[in-house]
Design goal:
- With about 300 residues, this protein is mainly β.
- Helices cover about 10% and strands about 20% of the residues.
- The chain has a domain of about 180 residues.
- It is built from 4 helices and 15 strands.
- The longest helix is centred in the C-terminal third of the chain and has 12 residues.
- It starts with about 35 loop residues before the first strand and ends in a 7-residue tail after the last strand.
């Protein structure tokens, strides 16, 4: 996966803000997602809002053309049978010992350590090397980007922590462990949800070319391009209402239904239309392959707020 195309380009940092539950383009809150006894952000959060009735963005056709109308949806996760795909996370308790973190690239936009992430935690494969821990009890989420183990500490390019009981955003212009300044865990497809047949949140997606701008809840861009036909970070994509789902089954059908109701959020530069999920032996890779038949032209961009530059 490709990452930031340049260092943080915004230097004006405002106070942390709150996302208005009634933000433009959103319908009713979803039922919310829970994990380890914690809400995965409030039901009113953008990740959990129904966008099935949101209006189409006026530049939707341009954004889809930029992504590539024939670019195919791709689940960037699986059971592990065909390799180490997916973004892992672990749950720790409130007594977990905190480990020092040294930030090596974007420290000025990172939340200071120490973090309660054990040094034995699984690191995402590939180049992004995310490490994620959710602390039960406190419901604090800790995420690192390009993490590697040092002597008694973590080394990472950047890191962020989020209170999953709050809609609070990153300061304007700040990255996180994701290029868009978003939390990663709330946007991951999880096998337990998909196997139950119901996913009640948007999913994280990457595209190869973005513009110098972002839409809330994103707080950071990762591009020098002023080409406004490229997607901004935080853009919401929705599977078209009329797209037929008859050929999908099981876990893939649950994902496709979620894409109609909650959609995708552009969160990083990477391979076009790669959606993120956790590595889990419970994934059925053959069923997930059904998703690879869906082209980008089956989606439309929806209007959920203005672009911040």
């Amino acid at each position: 996966m490709f990452r930031r195309l340049s260092p943080a380009l915004l230097v004006a940092i405002g106070l942390t803000t709150l996302l208005a539950p009634g933000a433009s383009g959103y319908g009713e809150p979803g039922p919310g997602t829970r994990l380890a006894g914690c809400p995965v952000l409030p039901a009113s959060n953008s990740w959990n809002r129904d966008i099935s009735m949101a209006r189409v963005h006026p530049l939707s056709s341009r954004y889809i053309a930029s992504i590539g109308r024939g670019s195919m949806l791709h689940p960037d996760f699986g059971s592990g049978r065909w390799g180490d795909y997916g973004i892992p996370f672990r749950v720790v308790n409130r007594r977990q010992r905190k480990v020092p973190v040294l930030f090596t690239a974007f420290g000025s936009e990172s939340d200071r350590g120490p973090y309660p992430i054990p040094l034995g935690s699984r690191i995402e494969g590939g180049s992004d090397n995310h490490v994620i821990a959710l602390q039960s009890g406190t419901c604090l989420l800790y995420e690192l980007y390009r993490a590697r183990r040092g002597k008694g500490r973590w080394l990472a390019d950047s890191g962020a922590k989020f209170n999953l009981r709050s809609n609070r955003l990153r300061p304007a212009g700040w990255t996180s462990a994701d290029a868009a300044g978003l939390p990663i865990l709330p946007g991951l497809a999880r096998a337990d949800e998909a196997s139950r047949g119901r996913i009640t949140h948007a999913l994280r997606v990457t595209v190869s070319e973005t513009q110098r701008g972002y839409i809330h809840p994103a707080r950071h861009f990762a591009s020098d391009s002023r080409d406004r036909s490229r997607p901004p970070m935080g853009l919401r994509l929705r599977l078209r209402k009329g797209y037929r789902l008859a050929r999908f089954s099981g876990q893939s059908l649950a994902i496709m239904r979620a894409l109609k109701r909650y959609g995708l959020i552009v969160a990083d530069n990477g391979s076009d239309m790669y959606i993120s999920g956790t590595p889990d032996r419970r994934w059925n890779d053959d069923v997930l392959d059904q998703l690879k038949s869906v082209p980008a032209r089956a989606f439309e961009a929806v209007a959920t707020g203005r672009i911040h530059r």
